[in-house]
Amino acid sequence: HIRSLIQASGHIITRDWIPEAIEEANIEKGRHSRSEMYDEVMNSILQSDLTIFECSVPGMSIGHQVTFSIEKSKPTLILLNSDIK
Questions:
Q1: Residues 2-57: pLDDT tens digits?
Q2: Which of these, 16, 4, 2, 80, lies nearest to 48 by C-alpha position?
Q3: Which of 8, 36, 54, 72 has a 20 to 30 A CA-CA distance from 61?
Q4: How far is 68 from 80, CA to CA, in rounded Å?
Q5: Among the listed residues 60, 59, 64, the one whose alpha carbon sits nearest the alpha carbon of residue 76
Q6: Do strands 51-54 and 76-79 pair parallel, antiparallel, or not at all (unpaired)?
Q7: Which of 34, 36, 42 is nearest to 15 (CA)?
Q8: How many Å is the Cα radius of gyration of the chain?
C-alpha cells in the first residue's frame, strides 16, 4: 500500500524491489547474489533524494540501510506498525 501511495503521488522509487521479490519467490532461486543485491540497495540509497523504510519486522539489514541513509545525510522516514510484536 505504501508503494502504491508513493507512485500515485507522482514520485519515483529508485529501487522498486517488490515486483522482483514476488517474481523471485515464485522460482526456486533468485537471479541475484547477495552481493549484487547489496550493491543495488546501497546505490539506490545514494541516488535517492530521501529514503522511506518500513521497519515493522526488525532485521539487521534494514538497520544497516537506515544507518547508511542517515550517514549520507538523506532525509529518512521510518514507518513502524507498533501492533506487530
A1: 888 888 999 888 888 788 777 777 775 656 678 888 998 999 999 999 999 988 87
A2: 16
A3: 8
A4: 19
A5: 64
A6: parallel
A7: 42
A8: 14
